[in-house]
Amino acid sequence: MKATWEKILEYASSPVHGTMSRKLRKGVQLQVNGEQIFDKAQIFIGDAFVRFTQTDAKQTINVYYDLEKIASIKTVSKPDAEPAEK
Questions:
Q1: Which of 36, 50, 61, 74 has the greatest CB tally within 10 Å of its CB?
Q2: What is the pTM of this model?
Q3: What is the mean pLDDT of residues 73-81?
């Protein structure tokens, strides 16, 4: 499943120029293993782990997941287009 998780994380994010990190696409949230929801995180995908970094006015939090132990990833976003009314 490691390759699948990597593809999901890549799809939900875009590269940060000049770094190996990625940032979540605007309007996309991620939840790994039913835990914390990430909404403005930077992601680093290593060979064996993935790191989520979120910063607010008071602190920077890094959360690390073993890629082999990820059981689920939930992506949340708004639809691209609203359905037409009938």
A1: 50
A2: 0.82
A3: 84
Domain boundaries, the chain: 2-76
- Given a contact cutoff of 8 angstroms between Cβ atoms, the answer to whether 37 and 24 are in contact is no
Task: Return d(Cα 25, Cα 4) in angstroms, integer.
Answer: 18
Please give the DSSP secondary-structure letter assigned to residue 5.
Answer: H
CA distance 68 to 70: 6
Tokens 């009314």 belong to residue: 85
pLDDT tens-digit map of 24-50 = 999 999 999 999 999 989 999 999 999
Q: How far apart are CA 83 and CA 10, in angstroms?
A: 27
φ, ψ for residue 55 (rounded to 5)?
-125, 135
Rounded to a whole number of angstroms, the CA Rg of the chain reads: 14
